[in-house]
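Submission sheet (multi-component)
Chains listed below:
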Amino acid sequence: MVGETLRNLLMIAWLLPLAGFAVEIFGGFWGTRQSKLAAWLAVGCIGAGFLCSASALVIWGQSNGWAALHRGGHGDHGAAGHDSHEHDSHGGAEGHQDPHSSPPATEHGASEVNSAAATHLLTVAPAVSAAAGMLIQEPVAADASAGEAVSGQTVFSGTIYSLATFGDLQLSIDYYIDSLTLVMFTMVTLIATCIHLFAMGYMSDELTEEYVDHHAHLSNGHHVHRPGRFYRFFAFLSLFCFAMLGLVLAGNIFQVFIFWELVGICSFLLIGFYTERKTASNAANKAFIMNRVGDFGFLIGLMVLWTFFGTFQFGSTYAADGSVAQAGLFEMVHRDSHGKLLTDAATGDVIITDASGNAQLKADGQARTIPYYLLVVAGLGVFAGCIGKSAQFPLQTWLPDAMEGPTPVSALVHSATMVAAGVYLVGRFYPMFVQEVLLTIAYVGCITLFMAATIAVVATDIKKVLAYSTISQLGYMMLGLGVFGWGAGLFHLITHAFFKSLMFLCSGSVIHGCHHEQEMPKMGGLLKKMPITGLTMLVGVIAISGLAIPGTPIAFSGFHSKDAVVASALGFVKANPGHFLLFFVPLLTAGITAFYMFRLWFFTFIGKPRDRHVYDHCHESPAIMTVPLLVLSVFAAFCAVGGEEGVLYKLITGDQPAHIAEGIAGGLSASGITLPNAHSIHAPSESGGLSIHAQAGAWALLAAFAGALIAYVLYGTELVNLHEVKQQLSGAHSFLMNKWHFDELYDGLFMRPSHVIGKCCAWIDRTIFDGILHGAAQATVVVSKWDRLFDENVVDGFVNLLARATYSVGDSFKTIQTGRLRQYVMFIVVGVVALFAVLFSTFPR
Amino acid sequence: MLADNNINSYLLVGAVLFVCGVICMATKRNGIGVLMGVELVLNGANVNFVAFSKFTRLGLDGQVFSLFVIVLAAAEAAVALAIALNFYNNHLTIDVDRASKLRG
Amino acid sequence: MTPEFLLTAIIFLPAVGALLLSLFDGRNTDVLRFWSLGVTILTFGLTLQMLMQFDSSVGGMQMQVAMDWIPAWNVSYRLGVDGISMPLVLLTSFISMLSMVASWSIKKHVKGYMVLFLLLESGMLGVFLSLDFFLFYVFWEVMLLPMYFLIGVWGGPRKEYAAIKFFLYTLAGGVLMLIAMLMFYFNSGATTDSFNLIELAKVASGAESTLASTLSPSLQITAFILLFIGFAIKLPVFPVHTWLPDAHVEAPTPISMILAGVLLKMGGYGIIRIAFPLCPYGAQYGAWAMVAIGVISIIYGAFAALAQTDFKRLVAYSSVSHMGYVLLGLAVWKINETTGATENRNFWLMGINGAMFQMIAHGISSAGMFFMVGVIYDRVHHRDLNQFGGLMGRMPLYGGLSAGLFFAGLGLPGLCGFIGEVFVVISSWSFSPLLAIIAASGVILTAGYILWAMQRVYLGAEYKGPHSEDITPINGRETAVAATLLAFAIFFGIFPNYLFRMMSVSTTELVQSLENGYQKAATSAAQMQAMK
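Outcome: structure written.
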């Protein structure tokens, strides 16, 4: 029952925006341009979606007694959570025991039993499977399938409808609901609702039949006049919400890919919302095509998974009788309690297991395996998709350009949700990533976060600064995930979504108030004019910088989550000293982050107004825009209260993949990477000093304070001449202003060559293939010309010659045909006489 | 030789008649004259037929043939005279040299 | 309705309609148009009736019709339908109907146009329904002639060149097919069933058949190459594709729709209906080459599309690229070199199904794209991509519908193009990872050329080309065509299983019989080797 209720609620939340889109786009097209109806409809749809998601979260929590919250410690070993393998495989008795009696005190103990049972089974299972050569049906599997028999069940998966079936292969639209899904749903719908409301104010100048676009020019120098597109904006937002929620709800990786592309196209539509502007359509194309580059990798990952696993589903599917019909991907890659993959002793290939952890057998009795390197390829492929979507190095260049879209779009799509989809997918697909892939993820995140932060330091467009900070923060999330801080990375995803959407909306409010002025050098001192915007922005700035008051629990959300990420990184570096950069770069960047964020704030809100005109016309935004700011600032400040002991973190990690709690010992994989478990990070060090977590937190806080202080000195006071600083560092400055020259690089490396190759192909077609064809045609014509000459001269000539000869003979005979009768008689006489003479002379008697 | 009642005398008469006829045809410009030449030729041939009928083992065949020739000559004379009349009507003459329309 | 009546009616109704149409007064163009439209609608209705009678749980041929036609040469009038031809027949009558609606823009010699159009439809339906090789060949050629005139009379500036190019290319393919046909005829004993495609396929697969023998393995390879070239020209794939851009560019809009929507499918259909089942050994022999050709077509077509400045040419090259997926999907037949057994059969099955789906999807999306190009061409009379712009503002509904159809061509999920492309690509890894990766890179290029084209045509501040004053909003008739196509694109994109269910039993049987056929031929080839 719970599973069905959750499914239905989330499906309503998911499909309502789609219905809203259909109504808005058609209703708006045939309706009037001044109506706000589309906006209210969109808000209604997403708001209802939020209510559904929130109630789903509550129902889910009630059904399992909020087991996630009652977990002890930091999710250290044997956390009760998901690991559906564990769920399906441990003995019936223990399985029933732990959810029913789940008071906080006993929970920990019960989990201990769980993991013990799982470990036990591991040792037994291969033997059984070898002997019996068939799948083991565990009793618990049956009630897991029904979805409600075990009240403590936290993961629900199933199929909505089938896309296609080929023999044993099945592709379908599925759902997969666990704590992460629910948290994401609630977060996305909540933020989206706020942004929809904000956008109603922000986009209100589109409510007209005659909108003047000051950024688009006609060839005669005039501005573009067009009907307002208020309805279209909200329709696209609704479509985007549909796609994003579908992505989160997806129960298989193929479905993720489907919605992955759909959010991509929504992003395309929204970035290019001002279709008249060349820059906007260029940015939209760039965003979509760069995403497609990532999707190319994604597709390769899908191909590998499909070829070797034969399914895309995350969780198991069940037959009507409750038995496992098809094991899910997450069950097919089995890890023992040390995080080691089950491998074939002879070849080293990874053995593919069924839902119970036994090797799946092929028809010839051999175990199904996948070469280890292909598992790496699959992981890297899927991660390539995430690189594109989350704007990580080296595909980061599209995100700053995407700021061409209206600011609410930047807030919703390009900071809070869609770009976070890449991070979400890494988190979701975590069980399939092997160490090498995780290390790649960590380094990619590390490079990204540093590079983007440096560019943000010199950016002057208020939205561009935020865009680069988004890239940088996404890098933090990736880093967190890559260094085995699964919870930390996703924690940062959620908190970042709140404070970044807040900051974007604040910048939107500034832009709106300053009549579409985005350059910070023209602002300054705006705090007096727009106090609510300025103060809520400050909340966001403090949150992202990770400032806190040491020794007290007073800290905004960003502190907690960044702290968690940095702590994971430090734990990782302690275990693998060779990768020390993974700790020091983010630490340095934490300082840079604080610097550029405070720079932004001081630049905009403090100091003397630098442009009188802008300042004079500036005004605070209406309530419909400021209320969402206030709501979001509350969440940005307090959503992570309690840090890793808090509600949010525990909810997120409620169903974390099992092997995270255990860590992965080094030396088991080819790369020899040790992945520490969460426990070791939080435990006090052997020497009795601070725990890794506390050390990292202290360093990060120090860096943040240093950055903020420098920003204050440079921009808050007038002690330093900024112009001189810029002159001194002009080389570095221009390098950063040019965004590390990535655009030029890609232009030279990919864009131009592909156009050249395209031209070559067209040329080959035109010149070579058609040339051959035309040559053949010409040759045929030439041959036929010769043929004609032969016919005309030789064949016809012979016949004509004959005719001419006959004619001339006749012609010459005609002269004796005089028509004179008497002459004829003479001829006859002479002829007869001659005849006789001849006869007589020839034949003598 | 002439007194001998043999075939040569008859053949001689036939030949003379024939040659006369031919000469008549070749020399006369008058259409009627030509016609008469034709008659002479035909009759020369008739004499020969009759003579061969008498002096060889042909029997009555020669005589029958000559009867045919006579009948044919009559018919031919009728047609030829009709042609001559028509020719005269058209050209106001029966000079055969004027009838050169069949020239090649 | 009895199959005899139904199938015959479907094929010949348009021809009869054309015959009656020739008695009409040529000056009253509206009557001619509505009559022709009525005929195509009625034909579509009949194919729907066929769909009602169709049982998708049966793998073999249904509603078979068999009558003597030319007994002296053992040629029969044999028709039938299965899960492979059913969707294509529906597509044909559907696209014909919509192109007829699009034909309102034809103003010259309306009567002749309509007559030829209906004859063309007869020919196309005949190809998809005939089960006799000779009959198939006849329809194949019958369809050619109306097409030649439709391009050559009603086409653009270089129509004669394009028409002749099209005609010669296809005819060359037809001749190769004829040779192969005679090879089969005489090698199977020249008996009653020697033109019977079903029996020929049966004997090739080693099943019980009225025929005694088929081609030897080595002859199978020859026959397959002949057939393949014949069908590849029609498909078309690299390097025999150059007729397509010219034919498409010069043909009038409705004919472009038919060309892209239906005619190209005949190539794919020929491969799956004739070339594969009749020479399974040859098919397996050529599998790698076919996959490679398919992949080259995908990439090459996409690159060539990127370089075009003519809007219609761009869409035409996108067809080359998309049809590459069809060939790729059909050919991913991997065998174990030692045992000769098929490996990963389900992936191949997926590839074949994906290829079939791609044919239908391409029929919808590319017909839509050509129609959209035609709509704007009718207004401004040029197709230079660099001289458009701003159409989204000038014609918002047109812009929106075009965006939908072009996204379908781009392979956006939720629209039909995605399913076919992605299914084919992900099924191909098990055949060859390298080729699969190259094929997958096509998604980037496709996005590149389609988005770039859309940007130049629909986006931007203003229209840059001539005849700006003639740009009027899309009218009801045009909206109806585009919206119908878009609706189907969305429907098949979201519920592909409707199509897959129709085909899967037949394709599964096909795969099984091909496997058997290969095994049989491989065994005999091995014996021959041993005897030497």
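Remark: Chain A has 31 helices and eight strands.
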